[in-house]
């Protein structure tokens, strides 16, 4: 019995030492984490700047009314009076905008010791003057080097040297759950640091920009953070903070940043040329879901389905055909449509593209030489995207497969949730017969008609759903 008590007290003693050691280790770990965040902040804060842009900015009477009577998605960037985010978070414009002088405020960060700064396009777009406030309070004017509305990026430059600056990290190495540190000037409060994690990668079809591959983070991002850096624990820039989703105008746990790898490719071109030239393949694509994967005998729902090929385009000249499924490009698997589309767009004209294509169950290799993207094609695609629908040409073969009458038109192959098309009741499988009372027989005609209608802010579609014909008016958001 005495031996038992001795052993019991010895075990209790060991357990108490172990608990004490664990508590000590936990404190040490917490101190290490805290020290890591402090180190990132110490390096980042001197390189983050506050930006004020004054100039002609479009304003809209409907937008003002909408702010006083908000819908389910309020505009969290009303602080900037920014049309870009009004379009994303609010209701569609229905009147011609009135020009009004305003000041737009945001963040940016220095990425070279001689004064190059990256920010969002919507922070400096249309500005007559851009003033930068450095950490420490010094105010200087900046020159706009180049802007790219299609990714919402811009490069400006100040006439200063020997500046603290940040380096770009490799956003491809990010994993969901990694630490994410946001730095910026929310509501004009300079040098604000917030911490969270990478919540998701590859977010697209958000209708924020034409080319999307966003990092989603729960690090607090608020009005004024736009253009500021999203950093990893090594103090490297992994993203440029761009947008939030909010029902209150403030932080609600969902923010989006442009990946550093995409941003750097754009920045290089803006510095060198002042603008961005994108690669052009010449196809309309649709993502592969499980049903399509089964129909086309694919092993998994990956790849991009070719729904239409632009006549005379690189894809047409190389022999790509409607209903080809692109499964690989230059040795990389097509995990999703947006990733493939962005990769092609970022390729310089003249680049070689080695495609692996599934055509009727057989794998083919097709080599394509990328050309420059025509501006008209970009704008048309953007206009269709704003409606929230994807279409493909209704061929006799496709009509026969779907068991519908082939009377021309384009068939709706996808509808974005909560888009203008979805709210109007347009469903997958609907046939669009006419746009603004003009018949359309293939995707190219449809895209051109929608682009032409975008200048008016709305479009009239004639739909055939089953045996019923109906007309729908959609507004461009």
What would you note in describing this structure?
The protein is globular, with a radius of gyration of 26 Å. The strands form 5 sheets. It has a 6-stranded antiparallel β-barrel with strand order 1-2-3-6-5-4. It has a 6-stranded antiparallel beta barrel with strand order 7-8-9-12-11-10. With 477 residues, it is an alpha+beta fold. Helices cover 28% and strands 34% of the residues. It contains 12 helices and 26 strands. It has 3 domains: 276 residues, Thrombin, subunit H; 95 residues, PDZ domain (Pdz3 Domain), CATH 2.30.42.10; 100 residues, PDZ domain (Pdz3 Domain), CATH 2.30.42.10. The termini are far apart. A hairpin with a 7-residue loop joins strand 7 and strand 8.
Q: Which secondary-structure class do the elements indicate? A: alpha+beta
Shape, principal axes of CA atoms: globular
Q: Average pLDDT across residues?
A: 80
Helix content bin: 25-40%
Total domains: 3
Spatial separation of the terminal alpha carbons: 82 Å
In which order are the strands of the major sheet placed? 1-2-3-6-5-4
**Care to count the β-strands?**
26
Helix segment tally: 12
Residue share in β-strands: 25-35%
Give a topology summary.
Blueprint lengths: L1 H43 L3 E12 L1 H8 L14 H7 L8 E13 L5 E4 L1 H4 L2 E7 L5 E10 L4 E6 L20 E6 L7 E12 L10 E4 L11 E3 L5 E8 L10 E5 H14 L5 E2 L2 E5 L2 H6 L8 E6 L4 H5 L6 E5 L2 E2 L3 H9 L6 E8 L2 E8 L1 E2 L2 H13 L1 E5 L2 H7 L7 E6 L4 H4 L7 E5 L2 E2 L3 H12 L3 E8 L2 E8 L2
Antiparallel strand pairs: 1-2, 1-4, 2-3, 3-6, 4-5, 5-6, 7-8, 7-10, 8-9, 9-12, 10-11, 11-12, 13-20, 14-15, 15-16, 16-17, 16-18, 18-19, 21-22, 22-23, 23-24, 23-25, 25-26
Helix pairs in contact: 9-12
């Amino acid at each position: 019995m005495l031996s038992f008590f001795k052993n019991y007290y010895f075990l209790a003693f060991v357990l108490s030492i172990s608990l004490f050691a664990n508590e000590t280790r936990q404190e040490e770990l917490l101190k290490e984490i805290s020290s890591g965040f402090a180190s990132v902040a110490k390096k980042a804060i001197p390189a983050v700047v506050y930006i004020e842009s004054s100039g002609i900015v479009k304003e809209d009477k409907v937008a003002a009314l909408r702010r006083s009577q908000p819908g389910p998605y309020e505009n969290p960037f009303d602080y900037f009076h920014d049309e870009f985010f009004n379009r994303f978070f609010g209701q569609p414009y229905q009147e011609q905008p009135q020009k009004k002088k305003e000041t737009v405020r945001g963040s940016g960060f220095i990425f070279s010791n001689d004064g190059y700064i990256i920010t969002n396009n919507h922070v400096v777009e249309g500005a007559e003057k851009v003033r930068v406030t450095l950490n420490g309070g010094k105010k200087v004017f900046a020159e706009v080097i180049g802007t790219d509305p299609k990714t919402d990026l811009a490069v400006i430059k100040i006439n200063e040297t020997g500046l603290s600056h940040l380096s770009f990290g490799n956003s491809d190495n990010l994993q969901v759950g990694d630490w994410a540190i946001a730095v910026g000037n929310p509501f004009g409060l300079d040098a604000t640091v917030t911490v969270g994690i990478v919540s998701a990668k590859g977010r697209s079809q958000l209708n924020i920009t034409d080319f999307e591959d966003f990092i989603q983070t729960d690090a607090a991002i608020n009005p004024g953070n736009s253009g500021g850096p999203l950093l990893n624990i090594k103090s490297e820039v992994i993203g440029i903070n761009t947008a939030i989703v909010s029902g209150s105008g403030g932080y609600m746990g969902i923010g989006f940043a442009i990946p550093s790898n995409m941003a750097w490719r754009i920045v290089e071109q803006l510095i060198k040329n002042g603008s961005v030239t994108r690669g052009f393949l010449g196809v309309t694509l649709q993502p592969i879901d499980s049903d399509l994967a089964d129909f086309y005998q694919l092993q998994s729902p990956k790849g991009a389905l070719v729904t239409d090929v632009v006549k005379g385009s690189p894809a047409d000249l190389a022999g790509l055909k409607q209903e080809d499924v692109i499964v690989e490009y230059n040795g990389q698997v097509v995990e999703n449509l947006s990733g493939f589309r962005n990769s092609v767009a970022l390729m310089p004209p003249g680049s070689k593209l080695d495609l692996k294509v599934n055509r009727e169950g057989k794998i083919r290799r097709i080599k394509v030489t990328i050309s420059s993207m025509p501006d008209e094609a970009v704008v048309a695609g953007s206009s269709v995207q704003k409606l929230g629908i994807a279409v493909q040409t209704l061929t006799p073969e496709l009509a026969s497969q779907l068991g519908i009458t082939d009377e021309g038109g384009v068939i709706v192959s996808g509808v974005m949730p909560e888009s203008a098309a979805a709210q109007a009741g347009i469903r997958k499988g609907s046939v669009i017969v006419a746009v603004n009372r003009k018949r359309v027989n293939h995707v190219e005609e449809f895209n051109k008609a929608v682009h032409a209608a975008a200048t008016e802010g709305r479009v009239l579609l004639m739909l055939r759903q089953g045996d019923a014909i109906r007309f729908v008016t959609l507004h461009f958001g």
